[in-house]
Amino acid sequence: MEKETMHLIEIKELRKAFGPIVAVDGISFTVDKGDVLGFLGPNGAGKSTTMKMLSGFLPPDGGTALVNGHDIITDVINVRRSLGYLAENAPAYDEMSVIGMLKFVCDARGIKGSARKQAIDKVAISCAITGVMHQPIGTLSKGYRRRLGLAQAMVHDPDVLILDEPTDGLDPNQKHEVRNLIKSMASEKCIVISTHILEEVEAICSRIIIIDQGRILVDETADSLISKHGGSLDQTFRELTGPSVVAKGGAS
Amino acid sequence: MNGFLSVFKREVKAYFSTPLAYVFLVVFLVLCGLLTFMDDFFKMRQASMQVFFSNIPMLFIFLVPAIAMRLWSEERRSNSVEMLFSLPITTTQAVLGKFFAAWGVLILALALTFPMVMTVTYLGDPDWGPIVTGYVGSLLLAGAYLAIGSFFSVLTRSQVIAFVLGVVFCGIFLYLGSPRVMSMMSNLMPMGFVEAMESLSFQTRFESIQRGVIELRDLLFFILIIAGWLWANIILLEERRAA
């Protein structure tokens, strides 16, 4: 019963500052199963910082968040168990082979023996990396690297996926495939995506949050946002976060 | 346990899938042999490995930080640390996994000096006590240097800086007890302080173990030094991994 009312991600007054710069300024929102949340904002808005805190990598200065009911401050190991995280620029160990890296991730997540083989085979097919399994990661193209990042985030079939710019550096075909992959998983998972590509948001996201200077400007469904502002999402984004708005904010 | 073992295994593989471990082993073994036979090994006319062991502290000052420098600085430079800590691994497990993997490489390096043992047994009838304790002492010394090196590799993203700081601090701990430093210090500092410093010296402890008897306090000394630096390593990493 409780399980049904629980949000998979629940962020409460999350705050993070780096010295005098406030990267994330007390934001709160929830994400449920079946949601694909598009996390938008100009560079430096606090998207990556929020995702780093959600993944349990970066401890917040204030507030907290629950992932699958686990607190990111007090129960970070269980948070990491229940989510898959693709960090910005898909960091990986360059000297390892693709399969070596996936085996390492499975070992760390306690997936062993035949289950490990099955999990890796499945994720290699869905992320289309079967051709490069024995190649050293350092020699991969940007697109393959990103898809390996996606594969390591999904290999344990988590309920929550946090993907920081998952289609950055992919060619149009690969972008299309990754979007289809995300769409196909959408109904069973809770997915948060950050991106700069607005057409992508329209194509796959059920909900949009726009943040700027660490604060949430918009939190609504893609359709209602577009209909409210009339024009395209692109125009809406520029209206909300463009230089004129920042100047106004600074003056007031 | 999954966390510790997976990090340990990955690190060992990383050492051997790059030239690092091989270069290290070759350089270490060549220098060991060279220093021993160029020194007074034959002149002493004794079947003992004392000359061999007396070179170890100095040799390790440069070689152990070279193994340790990549442990965390590389991980933070390439940002793979962010991937690592999205896995259900605690900071302690990760630090220990890396430490024991690097220690394993050093243990292998020491094990590969077995031709030295064969040489002295061929030349004469050595006293086995000092040989065994010499190896134990070398292992503990390597662990202590490694814990220091690992700490400094958290401190900076640059492997070169991590290496230099590691060498300097290993050197300080080694030479704290040397007669020249002691006599200089005794002119400047109160006697109690000088004695306390001497008791922290790696050289004094290493020589005491190497003589052939392992005393509990020497053993505890190295274990505490290793544990202390690793603990500082964990705290620092918690603080700085994202900074």
Structure description:
The complex is a heterodimer of chains A (252) and B (243). By secondary structure, chain A is an alpha/beta fold. Chain A has a single domain (2-87, 159-251), classed as P-loop containing nucleotide triphosphate hydrolases (Rossmann fold, 3-Layer(aba) Sandwich). Chain A is built from eleven helices and ten strands. In chain A, strands 6-7-8-3-9-10 form a six-stranded mixed sheet, sandwiched between helices. In chain A, strands 2-1-4-5 form a four-stranded antiparallel sheet, covered by helices on one side. In chain A, strand 4 (62-67) and strand 5 (70-71) form a beta hairpin. Mean pLDDT of chain A is 87; it is low at 246-252. Chain B has one domain. Chain B contains 13 helices and no strands. In chain B, helix 3 (50-68) packs parallel to helix 8, helix 6 runs antiparallel to helix 8 (128-155) and helix 8 packs antiparallel against helix 12 (202-210). The two termini of chain B are 27 Å apart. Classes of the chains: A alpha/beta (252), B mainly alpha (243).
